[in-house]
Structures are given as structure tokens and as C-alpha cells.
């Protein structure tokens, strides 16, 4: 029994977003070259000028590497940036957020072409890329910083999110109630540069292999109609 406990404990430590090794030298090479990511964090309004004209949406669903990876594969999404949302204190950092001492969640801001992909389609991708019935956790990642959340910018987004959740609950799809919080956006802070495109730069990292990619592949299998051409199987 003690050996089993130690195995589970060690597995959780290895395969958790907060305890994973970070490739700090690989900043954001995979992102748009027009974007400039600071070594620390910054309100996204300071760095999103190159994406002006696109619609934005913000989601939290556990480790932001996983959520970013899902949305980067959706047709019509031009950019997905990992960061922090749902909190009120100024200048959150990964160290603070990951330790659970702030009220922020790891989140992703999605820049998308509304003529090519709808907000409802983004909701479909979001709810297919994580378990929205887990309260303040996602798999091995435990704490309010890993909560499920939709952070709306207007009443239309709020109504769409609430209607989508109601439909999910009525369908019994997950077997449990959806606990995703739906709150006004407030300020979204872009995370440190080494978090951007983390899966692209660290494909063999244990957490990526054991947690991130299975989530992404599950989404891709469930909704091939939402994928960019390069991610569709022939």
C-alpha cells in the first residue's frame, strides 16, 4: 500500500503543470513575429495590436498549455495566447498563480476570425478539451488556478456560454453537473514568453506527452470538422 501511495504521489508531481520543467530559453518563436512577449507578464492590450480586427474570447480549462494547444488547431483561430484571467490583483506571475496564492486562473485568449468560426464553435472546442465537471482542478493539476472558466466581454457571450452549459447539463453528456464559472473578463495578462507555444517547443516533455497531447487528440477525434486543414487526417 505504501509503495502504491508513493507511486501515485510521484506520478502527480511529475505529471503536473506547475512542477513540469520549463524551457525558458524558448520564448515564443512559434507565435506571430509581430507580437512581443515580455520576460514577465503584461496586460494583453499592450501586445495585441498586430491582431486588431479579430474577435477575442477567453477560456480557462486547467493548464494553459493544453487549452492553447486545442485552440491553435481550430480553423479560423489566428492566435491563442496563454495567460492569466479571472483575478483582480495587479501583475500576476506564473510563480504566484501556480502556487495558488492569487485569485487568477491559467487561461488562454483566443483571437479568431468570426467569419470563419463562431463563438459557439469555440465553446464546442473548449468543452471537448477538458473536463468541466471537475471543481478547481484538471486531472493532476489541483487548485483554483486550474478551474474551468469562461470570461465574457459582453452579454452576447455570457448568454451563449450559459445556454451552452444548460444544454450540456440537460443532455447528461458528462454524467455530472458542469461547474465552469462564467464571469466578466476584467484584465487578461499574457503569461511569460516561455509558456507560449510550450507544446510545440517541448513535444517530449513528460507532462506534454502524458497529459496535454491526450486531451488535444481527444478533441481532434471528437470534432474533426473544426480542425485546420493541416491537422485533418487524409
UniProtKB/TrEMBL annotation:
Q: Which reaction does it catalyse?
A: L-methionyl-[protein] + [thioredoxin]-disulfide + H2O = L-methionyl-(S)-S-oxide-[protein] + [thioredoxin]-dithiol; [thioredoxin]-disulfide + L-methionine + H2O = L-methionine (S)-S-oxide + [thioredoxin]-dithiol
Enzyme Commission numbers on file: 1.8.4.11
Keywords of the record: Oxidoreductase, Signal
Enzyme active site? 63
May I ask which residue range the UniProt record assigns to the signal sequence?
A: 1-20
Task: List, alphabetically, the InterPro entries matched.
Answer: Met_Sox_Rdtase_MsrA_dom (IPR002569), Met_Sox_Rdtase_MsrA_sf (IPR036509)
Which top EC class applies here?
oxidoreductase
Query: Any idea which GO molecular function terms this record carries?
Result: L-methionine:thioredoxin-disulfide S-oxidoreductase activity; peptide-methionine (S)-S-oxide reductase activity
Tell me which residues make up the Peptide methionine sulphoxide reductase MsrA domain: 56-207
The Swiss-Prot or TrEMBL record describes its family as follows:
Belongs to the MsrA Met sulfoxide reductase family.
| Annotated PANTHER family | PEPTIDE METHIONINE SULFOXIDE REDUCTASE (PTHR43774), PEPTIDE METHIONINE SULFOXIDE REDUCTASE MSRA 2 (PTHR43774:SF1)
Q: So what does this one do?
A: Has an important function as a repair enzyme for proteins that have been inactivated by oxidation. Catalyzes the reversible oxidation-reduction of methionine sulfoxide in proteins to methionine.
> What is the protein name for this chain?
Peptide methionine sulfoxide reductase MsrA
Amino acid at each position: 500500500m505504501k509503495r502504491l501511495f508513493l507511486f501515485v504521489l510521484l506520478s502527480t508531481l511529475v505529471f503536473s503543470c506547475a512542477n513540469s520543467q520549463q524551457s525558458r530559453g524558448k520564448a515564443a518563436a512559434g507565435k506571430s513575429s509581430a507580437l512581443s512577449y515580455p520576460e514577465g507578464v503584461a496586460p494583453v492590450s499592450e501586445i495585441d495590436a498586430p491582431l486588431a480586427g479579430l474577435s477575442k474570447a477567453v477560456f480557462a480549462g486547467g493548464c494553459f498549455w493544453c487549452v492553447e494547444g486545442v485552440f491553435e488547431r481550430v480553423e479560423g483561430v489566428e492566435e491563442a495566447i496563454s495567460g492569466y484571467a479571472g483575478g483582480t490583483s495587479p501583475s500576476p506571475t506564473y510563480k504566484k498563480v501556480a502556487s495558488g496564492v492569487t485569485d487568477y486562473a491559467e487561461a488562454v485568449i483566443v483571437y479568431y476570425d468570426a467569419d470563419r468560426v463562431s463563438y459557439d464553435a469555440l465553446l464546442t472546442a473548449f468543452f471537448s478539451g477538458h473536463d468541466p465537471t471537475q471543481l478547481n482542478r484538471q486531472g493532476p493539476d489541483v487548485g483554483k488556478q486550474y478551474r474551468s472558466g469562461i470570461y465574457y466581454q459582453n452579454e452576447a457571450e455570457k448568454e451563449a456560454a450559459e445556454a451552452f452549459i444548460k444544454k450540456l447539463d440537460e443532455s447528461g453528456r458528462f454524467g455530472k453537473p458542469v461547474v465552469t464559472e462564467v464571469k466578466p473578463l476584467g484584465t487578461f495578462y499574457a503569461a511569460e514568453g516561455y509558456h507560449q507555444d510550450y507544446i510545440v517547443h517541448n513535444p517530449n516533455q513528460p507532462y506534454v506527452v502524458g497529459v496535454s497531447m491526450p486531451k488535444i487528440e481527444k478533441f481532434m477525434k471528437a470534432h474533426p470538422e473544426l480542425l485546420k486543414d493541416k491537422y485533418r487526417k487524409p
